[in-house]
Amino acid sequence: MCIVRPCRKVFFHFRSRKTHVPPRRARSKKPSKRAQRSVKRPVKSAGRQAKSPAASPANRSRKDIGEVFKAFVAIQTRLRAPGGCPWDREQTHATLRTYLIEEAYEVLDAIESGEPSNLAEELGDLLLQVLFHADIAREAGAFDLSDVITGIHEKMVRRHPHVFGNVKAETSGEVLKNWAQLKAKEKQKNQSQSLRSSDEAKNSALDGVPKNLPALPEAFQLTRKAAHVGFDWDGVDGVLAKLEEEIAELRSAISGNERDAIEEEFGDLLFSAVNLARFLRLDPEVTLKQSNRKFKARFHEMERVASASGAELSKLSIEEMEQLWAKAKSTTASRLPAGSEP
Predict the structure, then answer these.
(1) Are residues 276 and 291 in the same domain?
(2) What pTM did the predictor assign?
(3) Which of 39, 164, 275, 305 is spaced 20 to 30 A from 258 at the CA atom?
(4) pLDDT in tens, 311-327
(5) Could you please report the per-residue DSSP string of 26-68?
């Protein structure tokens, strides 16, 4: 643990940059100060104040977000400064990659836990990663945190013309379609002039999918981007038919005992399954996580029941295991998180 010593003050500032602030929607007039002073507020007793909702942690008065954020930035600046934390000072964009991924997954775990305090903590850890990378870039003269914040602020305004402009979008589908079109235009405008391989399409609708994504979310992103430009099925029956087609092709490859063909067809089957999840508006990563959790709970229950009866699970026959599985399935269903039940 690194102790931040208040041996010197840290001065920092955000570079002033002109940003477009979207116009506010029309709102009702505030009552005059005279009218506000005329309203008398009842004074609560000490006992009533203690039971007031305002006294709870969720509703108590909070510090100004800007001041809290400035203090947070100052801490990270101090840790990276000479005489700060040796570990923090050694980090680079490359060395922090693993931590960024870990923190993102811990946020997902916190969401599934349903504990607000846990989620708040993990979001803070993830925010630290953003600040860490911005601070490293600032030291290198590449960009700073103000560039990061200004960039996302301007992007949110540009990508929501139905809110800050005159574009109409009545459904979430229309919003996503507009978003994809705007993103494609921005990519085309900001395209690098560096040479690209001749077989790589320029300004592709599939641009923007990180190459380092795991295969499952990568397939999800690819099919979603293709769907945004209209390359999609008319209905779920078409997607299911494609899935059945891939299963038949996998069966054929297996019967032919062709290793390369089996691998290719199995990949096509997985890709089609991800596309089906996307079409059903499901996140395949989330749904697979739920199934993993479900399997884990049932298997643990099988082990518990077997151990309670003095048996070792690995010594049981497959028929006995199937019986334990059926019992575990009914026992654990009520204990699984919402959305995970069979």
Answers:
(1) no
(2) 0.56
(3) 275
(4) 999 999 999 999 999 99
(5) P-PPPPPHHHHHHPPPPPPPHHHHHHSGGGSTTTS----HHHH
